[in-house]
């Protein structure tokens, strides 16, 4: 059956989401729908997640700035493949497999294993074997984040990953500036590294403040309301999916900037005459990128989807 295309731009605003939901509900397992829009339809993703659950795939075919096209597929109930994010959320050892294969498990965590393999040109069965081999490995500092309460998980993100970012930004920034000043005439890419990292540092600093002052307190309030059976005051931002959408966009931006640094440094490859500062800088940049992967994974693939579902539960129980 030919994939349907729904041009949302010609639909009256108040009827857009109801129309999309109606068309989605009419799909059978394995069928797909393409929506054409003039802005990022990410709020629709969270509404679908909250009201229909994990029964769909979501893939951007075009991402602006003027046109967005998203392929929405209804999963076959007899063959529902897990997403990359779901696989890693259940067993973080699998993250190392995806990392070695160059498969993004944080910002790209919404793709299924098959979709991710096709995009990277990898054989699905070979990747599955690699994932199975990870099952025999031992957990090292591994936690079952999937079972953690959302308020505890948000506290963990702040106390571990936000703290790591704040502790390391000044040191890496100063080191990048120093190395660029000393070696930038012969290796101009180091000037670019220093500039891009300065941008990342500024953006992440503001990003963490927004999470800690706006989003995470609301998540904690929702958890308390569920536990006590009390009501939650409506959020000034209109619903949890709104700040989540912004946070995910900022995650993607930071990830792209750190990937740019990786490319500029040829995957942190050092020249033979690299000084100690040069070596430490590349080591810390790689460490920073790895920590951000874990940080974003915990939020995008566990904390955020569960928060959307919790908010919907509270609405269903008339607590919101």
UniProtKB/TrEMBL annotation:
<dbReference type="GO" id="GO:0046872">
    <property type="term" value="F:metal ion binding"/>
</dbReference>
<feature type="domain" description="DUF2249">
    <location>
        <begin position="6"/>
        <end position="74"/>
    </location>
</feature>
<protein>
    <submittedName>
        <fullName>Iron-sulfur cluster repair di-iron protein</fullName>
    </submittedName>
</protein>
<dbReference type="InterPro" id="IPR019903">
    <property type="entry name" value="RIC_family"/>
</dbReference>
<keyword id="KW-0479">Metal-binding</keyword>
<dbReference type="InterPro" id="IPR018720">
    <property type="entry name" value="DUF2249"/>
</dbReference>
<dbReference type="Pfam" id="PF01814">
    <property type="entry name" value="Hemerythrin"/>
</dbReference>
<keyword id="KW-0963">Cytoplasm</keyword>
<dbReference type="Pfam" id="PF04405">
    <property type="entry name" value="ScdA_N"/>
</dbReference>
<dbReference type="InterPro" id="IPR012312">
    <property type="entry name" value="Hemerythrin-like"/>
</dbReference>
<keyword id="KW-0408">Iron</keyword>
<dbReference type="GO" id="GO:0005737">
    <property type="term" value="C:cytoplasm"/>
</dbReference>
<dbReference type="Pfam" id="PF10006">
    <property type="entry name" value="DUF2249"/>
</dbReference>
<feature type="domain" description="Hemerythrin-like">
    <location>
        <begin position="158"/>
        <end position="306"/>
    </location>
</feature>
């Amino acid at each position: 059956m030919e994939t349907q295309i729904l041009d949302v731009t010609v639909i009256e605003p108040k009827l857009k989401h109801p129309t999309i939901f109606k068309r989605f509900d009419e799909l059978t397992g394995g069928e797909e729908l393409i929506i054409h829009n003039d802005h990022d339809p990410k709020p629709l993703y969270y509404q679908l997640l909250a009201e229909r659950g994990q029964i769909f795939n979501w893939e951007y075919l075009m991402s602006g700035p003027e046109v967005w096209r998203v392929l929405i597929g209804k999963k076959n109930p007899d063959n529902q493949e897990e997403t990359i994010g779901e696989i890693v959320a259940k067993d973080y050892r699998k993250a190392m497999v995806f990392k070695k294969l160059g498969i993004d498990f944080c910002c790209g965590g919404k793709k299924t294993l098959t979709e991710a393999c096709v995009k990277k040109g990898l054989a699905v069965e070979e990747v599955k074997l690699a994932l199975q081999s990870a099952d025999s490995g031992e957990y090292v500092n591994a936690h079952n984040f999937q079972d953690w309460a959302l308020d505890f998980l948000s506290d963990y993100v702040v106390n571990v990953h936000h703290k790591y970012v704040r502790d390391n930004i000044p040191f890496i920034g100063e080191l990048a500036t120093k190395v660029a000043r000393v070696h930038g005439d012969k290796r101009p890419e180091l000037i670019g590294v220093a500039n891009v990292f300065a941008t990342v540092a500024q953006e992440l600093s503001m990003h963490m403040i927004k999470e800690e002052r706006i989003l995470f307190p609301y998540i904690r309030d929702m958890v308390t309301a569920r536990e006590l059976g009390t009501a939650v005051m409506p959020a000034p931002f209109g619903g949890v999916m709104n700040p989540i959408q912004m946070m995910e966009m900022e995650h993607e931006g930071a990830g792209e900037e750190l990937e740019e640094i990786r490319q500029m440094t040829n995957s942190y490859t050092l020249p033979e005459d690299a000084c100690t500062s040069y070596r430490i800088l590349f080591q810390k940049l790689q460490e920073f990128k790895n920590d951000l992967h874990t940080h974003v994974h915990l939020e995008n693939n566990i904390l955020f989807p569960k928060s959307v579902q919790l908010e919907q539960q509270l609405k269903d129980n008339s607590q919101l």
